[in-house]
Amino acid sequence: MTSLDRRSVLRAAASAAAAGALVTGCDPTRDQDPDAVRPPGGPGPSGAGHASPAPVRAARPPTRVPGQPVQIEHGPRNGRAVALTFHGRGDPRMANALLGEAERAGARVTVLAIGDWLDEQPAMARRILDGGHELGNHTLHHRDICALPAADAYAEISGCADRLRKLTGTIGSWFRPSQTRRATPLVTDLARKAGYPHVLSYDVDSLDANDPGAAAVQRTVLETVEPGSVVSLHLGHVGTVAALPPILDGLRRRGLRAVTTTELVT
Fold first, then answer.
1. Nearest to 242 by CA among 6, 37, 70, 16
2. Domains of the chain, with CATH numbers?
3. Which member of 13, 110, 115, 181 lies 3.0 to 4.6 Å from 85 by CB, making a disulfide possible if both were Cys?
4. pTM of the model
């Protein structure tokens, strides 16, 4: 993608955001009705209907790290790597633009996809994996999982796992709970039941879901990141796309590199 193409994507994304057309990742005040189940087979990135795609090359299976806590917030502090993790939902044009920026800088990221987003945008699973990135589970409908009864919470975890398995052959590398930084013991147990040895938290919150602008996102990340940090970011926000290149440049200047979460902790 040329610089002109990237600017066009950002302008289109900004126009969509102004029109209220973009769905945010982890801002619970902007979520749609959490009980509304979107059926598979919805419009693809072009807006046209689609047939179920052939399975992509298999994603990594759930990561197990002996000696690490069940709930992982960061990796080793004595290394030179960080993990940029993205809550996966939003306009696929922005997702593609963001992944492209990461790849141009030689970075690899972890996308924790929301299951109903994968129903609408199944091609994004292939795009993420083909770029060398990591794919995981961020629940089926992005409900407040820690407030749900056990059966409903398990359905949120296992429902997204089913989508990932259908599209990639595995349930994905990580599970991250929705609308919370840390999982309750119940949700941790349910994640383990669904096949995830660890729950992925984070130690740096970019606050990009509040749309503070690219400069604020960049500043928040670079002022708080440390070696081993797991950074929480979101797809579907134009400011995040614009902030990513200077964030990656700032990490590079400190001798840090962005890797997948599995690479960070293993």
1. 6
2. 76-264 (3.20.20.370)
3. 110
4. 0.82
